[in-house]
Design goal:
Length: about 80
């Protein structure tokens, strides 16, 4: 087994960042398809990057998509 260690200052070390993209397709009753793409911020850990992208998609669905559904429901009730 051969091991190598670089004797470089810490500011020379290569840092890997991960980013994830979440894609959600929403089909409504009229047949219209909406595609939502959310990109997470670059993170050093894969799990943190995946969670950040997923949280963005959930936020959109809760705040933006949810408001349009509530508006449509209240319009139908009148």
């Amino acid at each position: 087994m051969i091991a190598a260690k670089h004797n470089l200052p810490s500011y020379f070390e290569i840092t890997t960042f991960f980013t994830y993209k979440v894609v959600v397709e929403i089909k409504d009753s009229s047949g219209t398809t909406t595609v939502l793409e959310c990109f997470g911020d670059p993170k050093r850990k894969k799990k943190a990057a995946a969670e950040h992208a997923a949280e963005g998609a959930l936020w959109y669905l809760d705040h933006v998509q949810g408001k349009s559904d509530k508006t449509a429901s209240s319009t139908q009730m009148k």
